[in-house]
Specification:
By secondary structure, the protein is α/β, with parallel strands linked by helices. The protein has 11 helices and 18 strands. It is globular. The structure holds adenosine-5-diphosphoribose (APR) and zinc ion (2 copies). This is Alcohol dehydrogenase. It comes from Streptomyces scopuliridis RB72.
Length: 361
């Protein structure tokens, strides 16, 4: 029997979000219905509401979530009712060229649930990033569910579903930060701070945090930055070179998504170093670089999609480290809120003092 639950819907471009009754069908073959316990508010949800992703309104927002599997459809064997799971954007196939080369985030054959959730009048909803978890229950492909230790707080577990995984993964998976490396992180919001946590976990000797806001630099320090640079008052490329014996950082992680910070990242790396681009630019942005610098500097330039994570490997591992007290993912939860407070959480994003507002059920 299809069920009716409450969910946060973005009805049209720039219109305020509304809590609506939504219809969640029973899981079909390969699908699962998950009782959501927590879902973080991410910038991407705001972009959906603003029409910046696509025009497939109405959206069922929310995509950074953890919960308990309620029911599964035919053929589902990896998860079962009662399992505590973290949701990820899409199930990967495991067989395509990208998957076989160990780059599952670039899988050619990803999939989401085949059935659609709807409003009570039958209007089909587009779930944000194939999840739609600002809802008491949501329908996903079973392959989007990764089982983890159920003793962790759902608000913490859900964070790994997007921003925190993107940041930690940028350092440990994409950037391959190694013991003793010097790492610079440009932009210390939730994603940049998570990159700092990842760099520390990987054994970086120096972690240089760069931001234009002193409050962000303070938080970055508490996350593990060893040095901070305010790039409003100091040239960050010069400062990073000075702090690394004149060489530049072994790994520079860009977590802003602007041309000037891409350029800083390019020049702040050591000649053989790696630049990891996590900040998402807009389609209009371009960057001019001297070709002799591109040619002469060597090293590598990589973009990081979802932290190059393999959910089945990375989610349980990071939850384990959190439970042991070796990383503190709880530090990313600024506040827990109710389903009716998502619009307020969007407003708070701009104030710059929130890492994550997390809806709890
Ligand atoms: N130089 C340095 N830092 C900057 C600059 C700049 N020119 N402009 C903004 N910042 C800082 C902000 O002060 C803030 O601390 O970058 C940080 C951005 O943080 P958030 O807005 O909280 O964004 P976050 O969720 O961390 O995501 C960062 O990663 O995944 C992508 O789409 C995401 O592009 C976004 C980026
Ligand atoms: Zn997100
Ligand atoms: Zn694949």
């Amino acid at each position: 029997m299809a069920q009716q639950v409450q969910g946060v819907v973005a009805p049209g471009k720039n219109e305020p979000v509304r809590v609506e009754t939504i219809v969640v069908p029973d899981p079909g073959p390969g699908e699962a219905v998950v009782k959501v316990q927590a879902c973080g508010v991410c910038h991407t949800d705001l972009h959906y509401k603003q029409g910046g992703i696509n025009d497939d309104f109405p959206f069922l927002l929310g995509h950074e979530a953890a919960g308990v599997v309620e029911s599964v459809g035919e053929g589902v064997t990896d998860v079962a009712p009662g399992d505590f799971v973290i949701l990820n954007w899409r199930a990967v196939c495991g067989n395509c060229r990208a998957c076989l080369r160990g780059r599952p985030q670039y899988c050619f054959n990803t999939h989401n649930a085949a059935q659609k959730m709807t409003l009570t009048d039958g209007t089909e909803l587009s779930p944000a990033l194939g999840i739609g978890a600002f809802a008491e229950k949501t329908l996903v492909a079973a392959g989007q569910c990764t089982k983890v230790d159920p003793s962790v707080s759902p608000a913490v577990a859900g964070l790994l579903g997007c921003g925190v995984m993107a940041g930690i993964g940028a350092a440990i998976n994409t950037g391959q930060v190694g013991r003793g490396d010097s790492v610079a992180v440009i932009g210390c919001g939730g994603v940049g701070d998570a990159a700092i946590v990842g760099a520390r976990l990987a054994g970086a000797a120096r972690i240089i945090a760069v931001d234009i806001d002193d409050r962000k630099l303070e938080t970055a320090k508490s996350m593990g930055a060893t040095h901070t640079v305010n790039s409003r008052s100091t040239d960050p490329v010069e400062a990073i070179r000075e702090l690394t014996g004149g060489f530049g950082a072994d790994v520079v992680i860009e977590a802003v998504g602007r041309p000037e910070t891409y350029k800083q990242a390019f020049y702040a790396r050591d000649l053989a170093g790696t630049v990891v681009l996590v900040g998402v630019p807009t389609p209009e942005m371009t960057l001019e670089l001297s070709l002799i610098d591109v040619f002469g500097r060597g090293g590598s330039l990589k973009s990081s999609w979802y932290g190059d994570c393999l959910p089945s490997r990375d989610f349980p591992m990071l939850i384990d480290l959190h439970q042991q007290g070796r990383i503190d993912l709880g530090a990313f939860v600024t506040e827990t809120i109710g389903l009716g407070d998502v619009e307020k959480a969007f407003a708070r994003m701009h104030e710059g003092d929130v890492l994550r507002s997390v809806v709890v059920f």
